[in-house]
Amino acid sequence: MTNTSAPRSPSAIDDVATKYFQKLLELSPEFATSLGLPGSEAGYSDYSPSGTAAQTLAARAALESLESLEPRDAIDETTLDAMRERLGLEIEIAETRRTELNNIASPAQDIRSIFDLMPQESAQDYGFIADRLHNVPAAIDGYIASLKDSAARGLVSAARQVTIVVSQAREYAKDGGFFDALATAGSAIDPQLTERLRADASLANASYSKLADVLEKEILPRAPKKDAVGRELYSLMSRRFLGAAVDLEETYAWGVAELAAIISEQERVAEQISAGASIAEAKKVLNADPSRQLNGTEALRTWMQGKSDEAITALAGTHFEIPAPMDKIQCMIAPTQEGGIYYTGPSEDFSRPGRMWWSVPEGEDQFTTWAELTTVYHEGVPGHHLQIATAVMARDTLNDWRRHACWVSGHGEGWALYAERLMHDLGYLSDPGDYMGMLDAQRMRAARVVFDIGVHLELKVPEAWGDGTWDAAKGFDFLEKNLDISAGQLEFEFTRYLGWPGQAPAYKVGQRLWEQIRDARSASEGANFDLKAFHSQALAVGSVGLDTLRRTLVG
Q1: What pLDDT was estimated at residue 2?
Q2: N or C: more exposed end of the chain, with fewer CB within 10 A?
Q3: What local confidence, expressed as pLDDT, does residue 6 receive?
């Protein structure tokens, strides 16, 4: 068990982890920006095959340095376990020579989205933005080189993903698009920067236009029409997002059963909302309730902020430790219109707070609170904000790699989904409408387990949902029945699952593993089990693979 109650001096294993972390900052200036660290405001990673090779070399060197070291304490044991698992897997993935291309989490989006985390208040801020805009073409050129290298090996993402990224790239690059808007905002802050910002925005626009052209003319003709990635790649990606190897068929069967159980509970709650109502009818009642409606994105942002602040006040000191400065979160409407909801962590010194972002699809301006309250808890407190900010503050016990660089979706998203159900258990979702919203979120995540594993492994469709084997078309119909979200969000999510295999199930499977770890601790401690103490200890470990977390907390 990890003891994080007292400061500790760095060990030899910490030194290796810290040196590796510093190397990551050197290789990825955007990573430094995401952490709010100064000195790398203009740079980009090398997205070419040479850049991937440098990342892999750094991982190999760190693992070699660890070979002769013995853990000094339980914290060292966890660090060693986590680094061997994470870095070893990173090398394994790099050796496939695949280049990531999808609609949400690939260099095509990352090169643009780093600007969202850059300060945008002063002339100096926009000077840095101009510098980074100037470097967008080199980043894009490196990415294009990697895409072509992978394509030469027959490794190309499905045509659906290539097509959507072409559309995204052209949207970023259009006249008056993202980069032009950034230049206009900077000109308003300091007119002397106008010419420079416009010129550099023009370079960024041209580079994204070039990316779109290459994708459309050179990559798309070689892209497979089939969306399923197959067992070999899927198994690797599942390990990447869980930090654990799971039996995919057993997990698929569990997902089918979990989905059925959630639907049954929704039917029970629908009866509470309106006697004799179906789930759909109960939702209509909730949607028609003026007290549950929000009009416009500013109303959405204000409501999100209020609920986030309320949660921090209510939970601090009672169910969780939430000391300053992590007792602040900022809710934002994202500058894009792609349909995602996400969290970005605080800077090292918390001068930039943790932020909850909502990327609202174009034309959508009506929102319902019953459907979204559980999302606030997922992204904020006790979800991602509590989880990530706790790790950032753990300077006395965790090395910088543990605090900032080790992120595992199954741990992070599993915790956030665990946090949603926990808020119901604590009474914060006792209203039948809000509970229906939480169940809807859980239903979506269970459906994703079925969809993601089923479609990518081309498994048999459960009898309750059709026949034959899964394909994308059957999967879309299935999602349409189980994800009660807008048409724009549905299309975004559907494309995301197809292009980012293994990530979407990490939420629900991660929640399952978190609950198994908690229950194992409860069983071993019996009457002495303290849920608040367990949460504090578990979050203090930081984000690690779920097998590592189990070994740390249970043994």
Answers
A1: 41
A2: C
A3: 59
Query: How many CB atoms are closer than 10 A to CB 478?
Result: 22
Instruction: Could you list the beta-strand ranges (E) of 232-292.
Output: none
What radius of gyration do the chain's Cα atoms show?
23
Strand stretches in 252-353, DSSP E: 293-295, 329-333, 341-344
Report which DSSP code applies to 247. -
DSSP 103: S
Tens of pLDDT, residue by residue over 44-86, are 999 999 999 999 999 999 999 999 999 999 999 999 999 999 9
- Evaluate the CA torsion angle 322, 324, 325, 329 in order and state its sign: positive
pLDDT of residue 191: 97
Residue count (the chain): 555
The full DSSP string for 461-497 is PPGGG-SSB--HHHHHHHHHHH----HHHHHHHHHHH
Count helices and strands in the chain by DSSP H and E runs: 23, 5
Distances (CA, A) of 510 to 33, 201, 239, 242, 507: 28, 41, 11, 7, 5
Angle, alpha carbons 107-59-165 (nearest 5°): 10
Tokens 């930039």: give the residue.
352
Question: What tokens appear for 324 in the block?
Answer: 């300053």
Per-residue pLDDT tens digits for 219-256: 999 999 999 999 999 999 999 999 999 999 999 999 99
Range scoring the smallest mean pLDDT among 96-100, 309-313, 357-361: 357-361
pLDDT of the residue at 44: 97
Residue 291 tokens read as: 């007290």
Structure tokens at 425: 């258990």
pLDDT in tens, 163-192: 999 999 999 999 999 999 999 999 999 999
Contact 508, 444 (CB under 8 A): no
Cα distances from 260 to residues 115, 254, 264, 432, 513, in angstroms, run 42, 10, 6, 19, 19
Helix (H, G, I), strand (E, B) or coil at 184: helix
CB-based burial label for 355 (10 Å; 0-12, 13-18, 19+):
buried
CB count within 10 Å of CB 112 equals 23
Residues 398 and 14 sit within 8 Å (Cβ to Cβ): no
Enumerate the β-bridge partners of residue 475: none
Can you tell me the mean pLDDT for 420-431?
95
Per-residue burial over 184-203, b = 16 or more CB atoms within 10 Å of its CB, e = otherwise: eebbebbeebeebbbebbeb
The angle at the Cα of 100, spanning 132 to 444, to the nearest 5 degrees, equals 105
CA nearest neighbour of 34 among 43, 248, 214, 254: 43
- Classify 431 in phi/psi space as left (phi over 0), alpha (psi -120 to 50) or beta: beta
Q: Which residue has the higher pLDDT, 486 or 14?
A: 14
Residue with tokens 């740079």: 43
End-to-end CA distance of the chain: 7
CA angle 291–379–283, rounded 5-degree value:
35
| 434 in Cβ contact with 401 (< 8 Å) | no
Burial 27-61 (b: 16+ CB within 10 A, else e): bbbbbbbbbbbeebbbbbbbbbbebbebbbebbee
Are the C-beta atoms of residues 18 and 404 closer than 8 Å to each other? no
Residue 4: pLDDT band by 50, 70, 90 thresholds?
very low
> Which residues is 366 bridged to in the sheet?
295
